[in-house]
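Structure ticket #2291
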Amino acid sequence: MPLGLSMPRRIARSFALLAFVAALAAPAHAQQLGSASGLPVPRYVSLKSDRVNLREGPSKDHRTTWIFERAGLPVEVTAEFETWRKVRDSEGSEGWVLHSLLSGRRTALVTPWKKDGPAVTLYSKPSETSSPVAKLEPNVIAGIRSCDKIWCRVNGVGFDGFIKQGDLWGVYRTRSSSRLAATCLTRRTVSYVIS
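Resolution: structure written out below.
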């Protein structure tokens, strides 16, 4: 036998090497946990308040660079430092927010990259052949109920249905969830309902 190893040992080493290579090739976001929270980084969260200061660094001594004025707005946590979270919004703006101003409640924005684009159809079932329920305009905030990598079930004031996951900012296209926290937002977020 080559290398003096028995067949079972060669197979075991091959599997160990394969597992090591697979771990290296896995996406970075699947491997990293936040140093302060122990939760995955990056991850999506939402703003708790209608007024949240975005700061240059992780302390109140740092200058406020932006003020978010929309409770429920989804942001992506990209780093953690003690009680501070570095976040990015749908337009790519980044800064630090005190963790107590963030919520684990999952929300998403409808096609924020199409500011003046057409409304997106919300369906009664996860199929384009199902009945349309509503049309959601760009930048509508929707509560995420669940996603399956293709469709997400979303809701808000006056709507509940399914939308293609690719039409949302605030969910990872490579991740699915069987059940996320249901959300019913207090803002009117439907552009119009289909009769």
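Closing remark: The two ends are 75 Å apart (CA to CA).
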